[in-house]
Every structure is written in C-alpha cells, then in structure tokens.
Design goal:
With 457 residues, the chain is α/β, with parallel strands linked by helices. The protein has helices at 3-9, 11-28, 53-64, 86-98, 110-124, 139-156, 162-165, 181-189, 211-220, 243-253, 308-315, 344-379, 404-414, 441-456, and strands at 132-136, 172-176, 198-199, 225-231, 255-260, 285-289, 301-305, 383-385, 393-398, 420-424, 427-433. The structure holds pyridoxal-5'-phosphate.
Length: 457
C-alpha cells in the first residue's frame, strides 16, 4: 500500500486532530507571543522515504508551529494585516478538501461562486455593474493587472497592440504622488521601469496628490499614452486622492486612471467617510485586498475594471485544450495565473456569514481602536503622534529623538504586540494598523502598557 493510501485510511482521526489543534491555535492567539523574530527552522534534508502524515504533522508541531507569529491575532499591528474569521477559516479548509481549479468553467460551478463573490464585493463597495472583476493573489497582482490594462490602453491610443506586438515605439508616461511599493514593483514587471514614473507633488502634510500639479504635468506631457495611479488610502498617512477631480483630468487627457484602494476601499462602509472615495466609479481600474480588512486568510485580493476588453487582451489564453465551451467567462482570461485557487470560497462564506453589516462593524471598531491609541499617544510624554489617525493606521515615534527602529525591535521581542516601520514626511516612524476583527479595547490597553513599560526601561 502506498503511504498516501495509508494516510487516507487514517484521515478521520488525523483531520479531527488538526481541527482541534487549529481551534486551540485560534484560542491561544490572545496569549501567545505576537511575533517570534528569532525563530529558526531545524535543518532537515528531503526524506528519501517519507514517514507519512502522522510523523510529518508531529514535525510541524515540533519544528514549525513554535516559530509562527500570531499574525491572525488581535495585537499584530504590522503592515495592514487582517485576521481570519471563523467562517473564512472553515472556507479555506474546504478549498483544500475540494481542490477545484478555477481556471475555466465547464466542470463545476466554482467559477459561478467566484462571480457571485465578486458581485457581492461590487455591492459592498457600491460599484456599478459595469465593472468586471477577478480575484487575485493580492493587491500587488491587482496593481499589476491595472498597469497591464493601462499599458494596453495607452498603446492602442497610438495604434500599437502592446499585448500582441510588444512595446514597439509606444510611449506611455505614468503619474503618481505616493504609489504603494507594489505599484513600483508592478511598473518593473509591466515593462515601464521601476523608476520611470513622474512623481506628482503631494499636498502639504499629506500623501495625497496635488491635483493642480497633476493638471499642469498632464498639460505639459506630449506623450500620447498616459496613466495616473491614484491612492484611496496611502499605506502610512491613509490619505485619499481626490478621485473625482483626477478622473476629470484623466478623461480630458485620455489617461487611464488606476485606483489602489487595497484597504482604503473599506472607508466606503462608513457613511461619514463615504465622500473620501467620491468619484471611485469613474476609475478605469481598481485594486482591493480581501486578506487585509475583509479578514479572509492569505491570499486573496481583487481587481475591477470598466474595460474588461483591455484585461482580456493581456490575459486571454488561447489553447483549445482549455476551452470547455461554457457560456461563463473563464477567470484565467482575466488574471495572471491559468490554474487558480478556489480563493472565492472563504470569501463567499465570509460575506455569507457576516454580511455587509458584519464587515462594517469590525471596520468601524478598528477605526475606533486606532483613534483610542492615537489619543493615548497624544497625551503621552514619551511618544509623539505624527498625525491624528483618519482611518485604521496610527503613525508615531518615540519622543526626545529616540530611535524608532530600536523601539520597534523591543516591542516586537516583547511578544505583546507587533508593529512595523514607516516614514512620515521624510522622518522614520512606526506604524500600527488596526485591521483584525478581533482587536478589542483591551488589546489597545495592552499595546499602550507595553509602550509605557518600554519607555521607562
Ligand atoms: C498592502 C497593499 C498593497 C499590496 O498588497 P498585497 O496584498 O500585499 O499584495 C498595495 N497597495 C496598498 C495600498 C496596500 O496597502
């Protein structure tokens, strides 16, 4: 008997054991060290003969689990990191169990599930049905798709089909104020060049674009292809570009407007912040992340565009062996990968289980926690609040010229919380992002107490 066959016979007790372990892990997230920056993996050569799943799971528990972070827990404030809701967690287990390949429809309704999940996202973010979408591995892949569409659009304006024939003599200029690092990476991947974009000045004390400056730059630009990468929520200042004004300029100058709203799109769930993304529906393409504020497990992002033809021209796969003749679109024709994970399922379960109001509730709670932490910093003599938080990200630094990097190392070694570095107006700072559905007022208190302790040591 093969080893996988022996494991299959043991699957019921093994699965029960893994389920119990996972539930324990979820319970312990409040208490285990938030990060393990010093963990290391014991060396292990590829086994010649495997010992089966029981031994492999034992090795996981011994060698891997102790070195994992509580990234899914309530005091992991690094980057912008969501957790995992119970429904999304269960959904993700099911993804592996059913192991569907959501490349093209015709063998199952997995594609329909993805289309329904995308439709729900459109509803959640109040986007018109004219936007077509695809689930991606994250916001980076979505930003790349945006630039590929923009490239195709800019090329066609000079009668060059870049997806088909390459760049040729096509010229396309990119404009952005505070592009996310993943957009810079996407500029490299899409053949624009990492540094080949025009940096639009920002507004004072803000990472948002100075629209008058953009207007002048577009006016002066004689190149036929133009792209503007706008931000709906920059990653440090959580600043929002004036999308309506930028869209008007783009339409006047024939520029493609891509909006990166990886986590900022969620501001649309709060009526008092709804006007920050006014004009979003005028974008040509939009990036969003689900593995951040929607709290589904990695990896899951989404991309919407009003010009699915541009997407298809880049991504369509012409292989007779892949065409099952279904009436539904093949999602592989709208994205980077051919074989695709059924990442729609945890997303679908998450939205089905908690609905719009459930998501809005944790988004609002996270913003209140960020405000509370901001208030604590503002009254502290040991810390400086760099700017009042507008959404879920708090930017701060230690007072008295103390080094943010060494403070960060001490916070992250304490096991109490995890924060990551940032830069505010050219000066090093720290960021704490609130995007986990579980983060409570008590977690904010523990963060403040930890910072207080470290300030006095
Ligand atoms: C996180 C983030 C990205 C990159 O997203 P990934 O999901 O890590 O690929 C892009 N843009 C913004 C604004 C982000 O916050």
């Amino acid at each position: 008997m093969q080893q996988p066959e022996r494991d299959l016979q043991q699957l019921a007790p093994l699965a029960a054991e893994v389920a119990a372990w996972s539930v324990d892990w979820q319970r312990m997230l409040d208490d285990r060290p938030v990060a393990c920056p010093d963990a290391s993996l014991p060396r292990c050569a590829l086994p010649e003969r495997g010992e089966g799943a029981v031994a492999a799971l034992e090795a996981f528990r011994r060698d891997i689990a102790p070195g994992l972070s509580a990234a899914a827990g309530p005091r992991y404030f690094g980057f912008v990191t969501g957790g995992v809701t119970p429904a999304a967690l269960l959904g993700d287990w099911l993804v592996a169990a059913v192991d569907q390949n959501v490349s093209s429809p015709g063998d199952s309704l997995a594609t329909e599930v993805e289309l329904q999940a995308l439709d729900w996202l459109r509803t959640l973010f109040e986007l018109p049905p004219s936007f077509d979408g695809v689930l991606t591995t994250g916001a980076t892949a979505a930003n790349l798709l945006g630039l590929l569409c923009a490239r195709q659009y800019g090329g066609l304006r000079q009668e060059i089909d870049i997806a088909r024939d390459g760049w040729g003599r096509a010229e396309i200029r990119v404009f952005s104020a505070t592009p996310h690092a993943s957009s810079i990476k996407s500029l490299a991947l899409a053949g624009f060049g990492r540094d080949a974009y025009c940096r639009v000045p920002g507004l004072p004390d803000s990472e948002a674009m100075d629209v008058a400056a953009l207007s002048a730059l577009l006016q002066d630009c004689a190149v036929p292809g133009k792209v503007v990468i706008a931000s709906a929520g920059t990653v440090t200042g959580t600043d929002f570009d004036d999308l309506r004004a930028i869209a008007a300029l783009c339409s006047r100058h024939g520029a493609w407007l891509h909006v990166d709203g990886a986590f900022g799109l969620f501001s649309r769930l709060m009526p008092e912040r709804r006007d920050w993304t006014d004009g979003l529906e005028l974008a040509d393409s939009i990036t969003g992340d689900a593995h951040k504020w929607l709290n589904v497990p990695y990896d899951c992002g989404f991309f919407f565009t009003r010009r699915p033809d541009m997407l298809r021209q880049n991504c369509a796969v012409n292989a007779p062996y892949l065409d099952l003749g279904s009436a539904l679109p093949a999602q592989m024709d709208r994205g980077i990968e051919n074989s695709r994970r059924f990442r729609a399922l945890p997303l679908w379960l998450n939205l089905r289980a908690y609905g719009r109001e459930g998501v809005a509730e944790w988004v609002r709670a996270n913003c209140s926690r960020a405000e509370a932490f901001g208030r604590w910093l503002a009254q502290s003599r040991d810390y400086v609040l760099c700017k009042p938080p507008r959404l879920n990200v708090v930017v701060f630094r230690p007072a008295g010229g103390r080094d943010p990097a060494s403070l960060m190392a001490r916070v992250n070694r304490s096991g109490e919380a995890f924060v990551t570095p940032g830069q505010w107006q050219g000066e090093p700072a720290l960021r704490a992002a609130f995007s986990n559905w579980r983060t409570s007022e008590d977690d904010v208190r523990r963060l403040c107490e930890c910072l207080q302790r470290l300030a006095r040591d």
